[in-house]
Amino acid sequence: MQPDQKRFFEKLYWEQYQPLLCEAKKKMSDPVLAQDMVQDTFCAALNRIDYLMTHENPGGWLSLALKYKILHLYEKQAQKKRLFIEAEDYVEPGELDPNIQALEEESGEMLEKIRESLTPEEFHYLTRLVLDEVSHKQLGEEFHITEIGSKKKRERIIKKLNKKFPEYSRKNSKKDKEEKD
Questions:
Q1: SS3 for 30?
Q2: Closest Cα to residue 125, out of 115, 106, 57?
């Protein structure tokens, strides 16, 4: 590691460790596991140090990386739990699990509400970004806009959806939490 990379990483670590740890502890019930997730996130950052040094928001990158590491951990835990299904929860092959069916219906209804709230182009853009996990660079090429233009398009769509569905807005959920405290 070069000296400038080392200085950058140390500064990033000291500035971002506590906020990331707080974020992880909010999302996880086990504080030791939360610390592990934060350390894993910094390991990933160390592997991508060249990229992070030129990134416009390294703290945001770390936060997003932590979020995905936690989600991945939960997915693994869920897979392990599925291996040990209790007898009363067992669904015969070919039968529909009522819990999954209800979740699929709810997701389908929400997706339809989102589709109705956006233009066809915006909905196509959003599905490519979220469901297909296409990068902003690829979206820029597909929609004939710049990579920054793609990010701005995402921001405008999010604002539009936040207005339409304020109950799902991050800003409102933060305000609600503050009011409860």
A1: coil
A2: 115
Whose CA is closest to 40, among 15, 72, 8, 14? 72
Q: Is 63 within 8 Å of 23 (Cβ atoms)?
A: yes
For the chain, the farthest-separated pair of C-alpha atoms sits apart, in whole angstroms, at 60
Residues 6+ apart with CB under 8 A from 9: 1, 45, 46, 49
Q: How does pLDDT run across 47-66, given as a tens digit for each residue? A: 989 898 998 999 999 999 99
Q: Cα–Cα distance between 145 and 141 in angstroms, integer?
A: 6
d(Cα 8, Cα 82) in Å, to the nearest integer? 42
Query: Which residues have a Cβ under 8 Å from the Cβ of 35 and sit 6 or more positions away?
Result: 21, 24
Is the Cβ–Cβ distance between 136 and 157 less than 8 Å?
A: no
pTM of the model: 0.46
The structure tokens listed for 22 are 């707080």
* C-alpha–C-alpha distance, residues 12 and 59, integer Å: 8
**Contact predicate 159/153, CB 8 Å:** no
CA separation for the pair 160, 138 (Å, rounded): 23
With contact defined as beta carbons under 8 Å apart, do 35 and 48 qualify?
no
